[in-house]
Amino acid sequence: MPEIVDAIVVGAGPNGLAAAIALAQAGRSVRVVEGAAAIGGGTRTEELTLPGHLHDVCSAVHPLLLGSPFLRSLPLAGHGLAVVHPDLPLAHPLEGGRAVAVHRSVSETAAGLGADGPAYERLLGPFARDWEELAGILLGPPLRLPRHPLPAARFAALGLRSVSGLARGRFGGEPARALLAGNGAHSMRPLTAAGTGAFALLLVMLAHGVGWPVAAGGSGAIAGAMASLLRSLGGEIETGRPVTSLEELPPARAVLLDVTPRALLRIADGRFTGRYRRALERFRYGPGVFKVDYALREPVPWAAEECRRAGTVHVGGTTSELAASEAQVAAGVAPSRPFVLVAQQSLFDPARAPAGAHTLWAYCHVPNGSDADMTDAIERQIERFAPGFRDVVAARHTMGPAQVEAKNPNYVGGDINAGLADLRQILARPALRPVPHATPDPRLFLCSSSTPPGGGVHGMCGWHAARAALSGVLR
After folding, report:
1. CATH number at residue 466
2. Considering 148, 179, 210, which residue would you say is the last residue of a domain?
3. Which residue range is the domain that position 70 belongs to?
4. With 0-12 CB in 10 A as exposed, 13-18 as middle and 19+ as buried, what is 78?
């Protein structure tokens, strides 16, 4: 008879690896099964354009890596992971060669906001001070009373608002409003939607608390370090083995699946019926992304000096322009002037490109499953704030939603968050249950970004699922 392991984890993305590590730390035998030829999921690095140019296939900038209560507790540096901090976490260019920037320091950031500086310090100062407690709450178990109720209550009161309402209510000038709105747009929701304020506050809070670093050598180094740690704990990893049915898996006391509800239904072979099955069938996926990776002959010729010092650049102009772009996406229309998220890792990590050359990572939001080619729209937006950008492009590689999903099946229709992040699906993700990572089958657990706390490289979905397994069938 085959040897029975304690747990099989399906999927070697950061959540699957986090679940496996947590189980191995608890002394359980673990085997990870990954369908792709390489581990990593959303944390992979490949030569997508020219030889020697290393591009992050999906996730590129990692505030949640350092903000995660679980990942920051792991000895990943001892397994080869190093992070690189840009001079500035973030810049947001405006017309006229101007830009607003987020510095690590709240006061330095406020100093660049003119009359809105004091309001910025009042808004972000307490969150930056309490970032560790708040990160533990926001990434912790849902529907639990927080250990630090006062900071949590203040964050909830402001974060439940729309980012457009929060920006207008707190700031009188466009630079501060645009800065907050750009961070809220990471929600991939209309900027008028309730709860988008929480995305803005969390990301800016982490910029001050831990920075917005990149992984030295590429995001694949995160998965590599996690895999090395897992193996040192006795865990096993098998790649190139897609799973279409639970019957294909070796015997195990528990199975944790780093997959979306759609794949869970297929793999579970009809084990779920009734209310839980209906919840999985109703699970909604959010907008997709259109991504362009560039090999550059020289750095982007940004007009604003702050953009030349920032690891991440939010390209989209004014608050009203950002709102119009995200509203078009929500209405099922590919935006004519998209909000473009840009990362320029090679400015701070020379391992990303040959000497003198550079890479650039850029994507915009599009309707789920869109087949629109957004290359020209993305480049026109960058050219607005970096005249001559196209002249420094040596090569480009594009991926629409279908290609993004082909790289990672969890990104249904190009949805890199593995599920719409509205208020309902933040709490009922994928179903409203006391332990959302558990399923009606006591042996099966869901550990993907389709569970709380949602998307991002924090590993907490996997950690929560592992804790659920250890409290149940693996006690």
Report:
1. 3.50.50.60
2. 210
3. 5-44+58-82+215-283+419-471
4. exposed
CA atoms within 13 A on the CB side of 413: 18
Q: Distance of alpha carbon 97 from its chain centroid, rounded?
A: 29
Same domain, 37 and 65: yes
Check the CA dihedral 83-88-92-96 and report its sign: negative
Closest CA to 335 of 304, 308, 362, 370: 370
* Residue 336 and residue 408 in one domain: yes
Final residue belonging to a domain, choices 184, 210, 236: 210
Q: Report residue 435 as tokens.
A: 């332990």
Considering only the C-alpha atoms of the chain, give the largest distance between any 2 of them, rounded to a whole number of Å: 73
* Residue from 446, 466, 475 nearest 20 by CA: 466
- CA 83/CA 32 separation, integer angstroms: 26
Q: At a CB cut-off of 8 Å and minimum separation 6, what does 455 contact? A: 416, 417, 418, 419, 421, 449
pLDDT digits (tens, 9 = 90+) for 71-98: 999 999 999 999 999 999 999 999 999 9
Give yes or no: residues 64 and 50 share one domain.
Answer: no
- Please state, in angstroms and rounded to a whole number, the distance separating the CA atoms of residues 51 and 24: 37
Dihedral pair phi/psi, residue 205, rounded to 5° = -55, -45
For residue 401, the SS3 value is helix
pTM (predicted TM-score):
0.95
Extract the tokens encoding 397.
């590689």
Q: Do the beta carbons of residue 344 and residue 380 sit within 8 Å? A: no
Q: What is the pLDDT of residue 228?
A: 98
In a shared domain, residues 367 and 437: no
Whether residue 385 sits in one domain with residue 360:
yes
Q: 3-class SS at 253? A: strand
- Cα distances (Å, whole numbers) of residue 367 to 287, 342, 374, 400: 5, 19, 12, 11
Please answer whether residues 338 and 374 qualify as being in contact, where contact means their C-beta atoms are separated by less than 8 angstroms: yes
Helices 131-138, 117-129: inter-axial angle, 10-degree rounding? 70
Residues 168 and 221 in one domain: no
Segments in 210-337 forming alpha helices (H): 220-232, 261-267, 274-282, 319-330
Contact 202, 337 (CB under 8 A): no
Pair (263, 333) in one structural domain: no
pLDDT (tens digit per residue) in 320-352: 999 999 999 999 999 999 999 999 999 999 999
